[in-house]
Amino acid sequence: MSSNPVLLSVENLKIRVGEHGPLAVDDLSFSMAPGEIVALVGESGSGKTMAARAAIGLLPLPMQVCGGRLDFQGRDLATLDTAGLRAVRGASIGMVFQEPTVSLNPALKIGQQMSEALELHTDLNAAQIRERCLTMLRRIGIKDAERCLEAYPHQFSGGMRQRIMLASVMLLRPALLIADEPTTALDCLAQLDVIELMLELTREQGTAILFISHDLSLVARYAHKVVVMRHGKAVEQGTIDDILLAPKAEYTRQLLEA
Known about the structure:
By secondary structure, this protein is an alpha/beta fold. Helix content is about 40%, strand content about 25%. It is built from eleven helices and ten strands. The chain has helices at about 50-55, 80-90, 100-105, 110-120, 125-140, 145-150, 160-170, 190-205, 215-220, 240-245, 250-255; strands at about 10-15, 25-30, 35-40, 65-70, 75, 95, 175-180, 210-215, 225-230, 235-240. β4 (about 65-70) and β5 (about 75) form a beta hairpin. The longest helix has 18 residues, at about 190-205. The radius of gyration is 18 Å and the shape is globular.
């Protein structure tokens, strides 16, 4: 974990469903440093995913940010237009979703999909992009990397698709990786495999992780800090030891017991 200044500061974030609907996220505040792993935990519907999606402008309609700040590297993400968000998304902030089939286009070859962000955000030529993709695929344990570039997502298992998705995101060496339940759809062995790979890649590149999960045992093993959410609000937050050994909120105790 780095002692550098704050990387992401979420201040009094409010997300509303439509113009006059209820708040999906209500007055949420937390911060994280470069290289730090911060977990947002809570049951389904707690607002943890919406808070993370707000950071990269991917809130589903009709949800919208209606208050607060999302300061990332000195910029308020909530005020960026579409072009500004597109410049940040991928290059500085990467995101891995629960199910890789959401992110990987079944109609495009792996090589095309891995190359896309490098073509958009770097000045590398085609040969350099191909070499960087091959190097990353070998790094994540793909034995025949050249063949993988020519293959389609359906030709791989769920665990391998998630590894490829993670590799694609980490190609741009983002400062922040948002991991939204990245292993929920996988079996236990594949879960640990993907999590360990994610930690290795982010550690090598100094990337911070905002880890969204409902699994406190997983969070306890890997996170530095945790924010417990319920009904859109932060019930409590602190270091892993603070939350696991001395939870103050009854809801946190219930999660731990479950």
